[in-house]
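Friendly challenge for the regulars: who can give me the structure tokens for this chain first? No prize, just bragging rights.
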Amino acid sequence: MRSRNIKPGFFKNDTLAEINPLGRILYEGLWCLADRKGRLKDRPKRIKAEILPYDDCDVDSFLNNLQQNGFVLRYVIDNNKYIQVVNFLKHQRPHPNEKASDIPAPTKGQITYNQGVTNDTPRSEQSITKERSNPSDIMIPDIMIPDSLNSLSTNVDKQPSPAAPPKSKHFSEKLEDNQLQPILALCDNITKRVRKGSNGKTRFEPYKFIQRQVNNKGHPQAILKTLESMLANWHKIKNPWAYAEKVMKQEGAKSYARDSEQAHENLKAEWVAWERTDQFKKLGKLVEDIGNINAI
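First reply, four minutes later:
Bragging rights claimed.
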């Protein structure tokens, strides 16, 4: 996530007012999630995990609403889905050290997808902005935030500041989809329990816990087992953080032990299969012949 700018007009924009309040928050979050060109991968579940982790909502539907109202463009290139925040560079000033975009830009006539749009003519980012009275102009900042001041500096003698160390990737980018989906489902359930809890339980943040474990190279299966255990024993847990760390340690040891055993079994199976090949038999005959030569 990155620092971005917002204008007070955001709160009085009548076009944006037609969108669900959570959809408006999502729109702001997209600016922070997008790269320096205003683009990001169109993966609604991962976007929800980043921007609206504690809310029970349909992010895909919100994205459709934002596209229908001219705030974003959802498009496909080579079967990969992306989002372009409309007029992003017109209103945002990314930090000079921000990583270059590696997402292809939408082109004129680019095919878009949107379940709520019935127009047969594909719409480009440019065509959307022409149709409307620039609702995305709410992103224009009155005063740039500190991160953007470097890009406005007129001091040509000033040396560029060193690049900041790369931040850890969000756990949704590190986990495989088959690991991520059950973990996110458990997180949603625990989040609902947290809301109804009291005292220390209200301070437990399941998404923060997962991020910490992933950063520390915690085993995905151990994370899943820990969340399952928390959900099953929630009414008995007095200190969720301590409980989670304890179970994670136990399950992590078991998971890595299982991985080691499985790797050993796989290696044995590969060895047995190799023993049956002609190549192995030839190698054995060669070793035998060398032994006979040495015995002479």
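The CA atoms of residues 1 and 33 lie 5 Å apart. The longest strand covers residues 72-77. Your move, everyone else.
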